[in-house]
Prior knowledge:
Elements: H1 10-34, E1 50-51, H2 62-78, H3 85-92, H4 98-127, E2 135-136, H5 139-166, H6 170-198, H7 204-210, H8 218-222, H9 232-255, H10 271-293, H11 298-321, H12 331-350, E3 366-372, H13 375-379, H14 404-420, H15 427-432, E4 436-445, E5 450-458, H16 463-470, H17 473-479, E6 492-496, E7 499-503, H18 506-521, H19 525-529, E8 536-543, E9 550-557, H20 562-571, H21 574-577, E10 584-591, H22 607-616, E11 620-623, H23 626-635, E12 645-652, E13 657-663, H24 669-675
Parallel strand pairs: 1-2
Antiparallel strand pairs: 3-4, 4-5, 6-7, 6-8, 8-9, 10-11, 10-12, 12-13
Amino acid sequence: MTRARCFFNLALIRQNFRQYGWIGIIYTLGLIFAVPLQMFMTGNPSLFNQKVTSLFQLGDGMQGMLIVLIPLSAGLMLFRYLQVKASADLMHSLPLRREHLLTSHLGSGIVLVLVPVWLCAAITAITRPWTGDLYDFTGKDIWTWAIAVSVLSIFLFCFSVFVGICTGQTVLQGIASFVLLILPYMLMQLISYYFSLYLYGYPYGIYTNSIRSDLWSPLVHLFSVSNQAFEVRELCVYVGLTVVVVALSYLLYRKRHVEMAGQAIAFTYFNPLFKAGVMLCCMLIAGNYFSINMSGRLVWTFGGYAIGAVVGYILSEMVIRKTWHIMNRKIPLDFAIYTFLLSLLLYIPVSGWTGYEARVPDEGEITQVYAGSLYNLYTQKESSTNPYEAYSPFSKVDPFSGDKDYIRAVQKLHSTLSVIRPAVPTGKSFYKDSRVRSMSIVYRLTNGHTLTRQYQVPVVGFEPELRAIMETAGYKKSEYVLSQLEHDVKTMNISTREGVVVLTHSAEINEFKALLRQEILDMSYADQIGDDVPLADVDIPITMEDRNVISFYSYSILPSYHRLLNWLADKGYSDKIMITAKNIASVEIAAFEPKILQGDHSYYYDPEQYLAIARKQNRSLVTQDKDQITDVLKYQKKYVIRKGTYLVKKNYEDGSPEYVLMETDDLSPELRKLLR
Length: 676
């Protein structure tokens, strides 16, 4: 007798448990192995009292695999009767309403995926005192984990059921479930990269680093969940999505025809959406691929989109019709319509109609601004609550400034870039031509929104605009992370390849930090864009209360830091660590002449190869003269090959080499005479 009041059938539920109980058994054993058993297993017996902020940190990814595969498989198994004609006819011939069938199977599946989770949680709670000091976690962590896994398991199971109702084949149900669960994440990545190709100033690097894209897909998040546990609001979203897919399942199940078993898609009005979705994904993948590998050449790029459209259309038609015989008279027109509409969909967002590229906010709309190359680090979400992960020096630091001169300078550069749109050197010319500054421009607006752009700015031609920005205190404070000099530290390390000086006295540390901060704030535009080789590195160790490891942030001591260098000399530290001519056995110098290699540009990456050719042509000079070596140390630049410069190889006394650059004007008369 049908239990109409209870809305389910006990006999059917018992049959499901007898037939598919093995799913719950596998889930139980897997979770026990991945969670409580892991507390007794470690490859390093010296580890103890490890702080566990989430039980998702246990199991090395096994939990994610189980939480995804088992609930989705339960949906495949319990609703397989929908995809086989004989089973569908038999099940729907029973004296049960469709609501009873669906509720009975849903209830069976939910029990199969819930009981293992809470059984595992109970075992973990019971065995926790027996783990000794190996792991440190509380009972709250156990129940938090159990609730999160329960919500995810139910959602994935119900989603698999919903997909099964919409499809007519078990294999397609499984594939479609995985694809649809990862589709939002993949589409966001593909569309974001597509915008970066065709929207000048689109901040692709910032969006990919600052936005937690894993939130768009439970699959991606589950496989990275050891780094970032699920938050309450995320679980609430999954609860809401579960309610939606269950409601849609009831609605569609009532309308589904039994004879659709074995068909690809059970509802024909989903065919256009399926076809358009497959074509769009294929077009984005192929177009982006050819654009990357063919250096953005238009013929190959548009050819990639065309190939993607053809492949996507053919695949979707073959799936829908269940045959590769898809040609008929309507195909060309149908393909043309889909291609035109999707091309329009892709074109409109990157066209000039949107005004995206020319948009520069008025000064009255701006409250604060940021300009620099580190914005993605400042906005990157914490990847972990793990206390053993290093602290980020950019965390909880506001890089914005409300200085009006700074805002106007950033506006001017932004306006100039939006009009001129300078071409950025690539390939060989990138190494030959000068310098390019990566510049992220972010405005905080009066309406509470932000406007973000990202540009590669050639130094040549934009000196006035860059100078106005880079010589402001607001730019230097964020670009050189001066916030780290505000921390109270017990030690500071000043190091070169010749040695290390450790400052331990608080008075010395505070004096050094104040000098270093002032030197950075006093840097000129030329100091910042120059290629001066740092004379030493400063490492500041920082320990945070919620972290069990020490993190470091490093600053460079440049030749222009005269007050700081004098302070080191007065303290006697320079003699201990600074590199002088006595530390270098010899230097080898050769003029950079591009023509001699006849098209071989590998020397851009391998300076030793260039010097080897120069030796064969008797164009290199080796000197051990200490005065000449001192001149090299005084004028050396970072190794960035440019025409009209000299490649210098410094051979240290310990046998190790270092490659630097010298400008022609910096050569001493003696070296010029020898190099003729």
